[in-house]
Design goal:
Helix content is 39%, strand content 18%. The protein has 574 residues and is an alpha/beta fold. The strands form 4 sheets. The protein has a 6-stranded mixed β-sheet, with helices on one face. Strand 16, helix 6 and strand 17 form a beta-alpha-beta unit. The longest helix is centred in the middle third of the chain and has 23 residues.
Length: 574
Amino acid sequence: MEPKQIKIAVGIPKVSVADCRYNGDAIVGMFGKAAAEGADVLLLPELCISGCSCGVLFEQELLLRKAQEVLADIAAHTASTTTTLVVGLPMSRPEGGYDNCVATICNGEITHLFRTTGGDVVVGGTKCHIVVGCQQAETDAAVVLHLCAETACAGHEEALREEVSKRSASCIYALASCGFGESTTDVVYPGEAMVFDHGKCVADAVPFSFEEQLVVAECRVTGNAVVNKYPPICSIHAAYDCITPTPFLPQPERIGAWCEEAVNIQVAGLAKRLLHTRAQKVVVGISGGLDSTLALLVSVRTFDKMGYRRQQIIGITMPGFGTSDRTYRNAMTLMKALGVTIREISIRKACLQHYADIGHDIGTHDVTYENAQARERTQILMDVANQEGALVVGTGDLSELALGWATYNGDHMSNYSVNASIPKTMMQHIVGQIASDSDDLTVRYTLNDIVATPISPELTPTDEQGNIRQQTESLVGPYELHDFFIWHLVRNKHCPRHIYQLATQVFGSRYSNDTIKHWLTVFCRRFFTQQFKRSCMPDGPQATPVSLSPRCGWHMPSDASAAAWIREANDLNS
């Protein structure tokens, strides 16, 4: 039998969440391009007629009705062509709810409609098997067409490609996953389009593109494949090595690529939020510390990629009673080197007035003294954002969220929090990597000095020499320990006893057992008591396997008791 040829197109259209008409027009345009390329089949992502990130809107009758209407319109636009379109959409059930469906369309007709599961279709005389979402599949088809909605995570792209390569060992495997335009409330959809032919990648798109993408590959079909069993692809995850002091990071030779992917996720998340709100300016509070530095770098990269001027990034430094010469100098130097708009607004006068208004003794450096400064800074950022029609980019990170090391309705709040899933230990590597990649010597030197600066909220006065007196890790504990605790409590769901046993193995040369036990107890107490801050945290993209968002991944009551966890930590034999 002569080998057959099949030309496969895989597309990632730009979508507008819940706007089926907009998405239908984008699909029709992409179909026209694929047909002009002579494609036998065009594969599009899961639920792309509606967008995959509609959430509870999938239960709305109007959305489901519009999806079906648009499906019919799309079919009408495919008349007089031989290209088969494979497209995902939600469809209502007679008993209520909806199904995650796949339709195939050819020559103006809907030829197949698969509800919840895929199935076999014939394209150009070739048997193809359709897989949708996280479905488990078993087939002997020569071609597998997979519609999915994979979310991004540092290291995930590499793991996904390795998995698809394995799946294509005895077949042709095409995958289309949702991309730009999907909601970035808590996750980012990077937009993956790839065709693998017997283990080799023959066509692929560039992840995190802000534009639609179409890739086309012509493959030889030599006959049916052997029977293959495919586990759910959603079970794929990056190969993080958990039993290390830095579980959020891979082996050293892969750290650079993973940090770059994490930044790409942050950039894509912020870009979508800017487009959705039609904002072309952002406001970032710049302290000269690690968190605000990364938020500024992400903002700069986002604006560069979107074609916006860097001057539309408003960096505001707000010196207070604890601002050190070192952090102030680094904040100003970095903003100037990056070419953003610089504003300096001291909070000292406003805070002194506030202390007087509420009758607080300025010499009492307690929580009131500190939190008033944090809230004053947030008020400035929010009000300037209102003046400028801008968004406030949040700076707080995962480590701070876990410990509650943020002022409620102070630095806890923003319009979009780009660092929400980045722990301190990973952040140091990201900023360090950006420093080493920079051709600007001023930027490189400043970023390296920021990484080397002791971590501090700088809310209490400096010493006589103007140096940082208030150091975070002396107050709440080493971040490398806390990040280890976060990973094993949240991701691995380990109890304090198990976490302690692992920690003494990997940190035994640096910390005594008593020290590890002490900070583990502190962690358990703070993690539970500070949940109320996470219950109303701003939107932000998940760039690592751990999310503490109450909407995505961490559904914990604010008034849950920590008693059992603290007792177990206290009872450890150190």
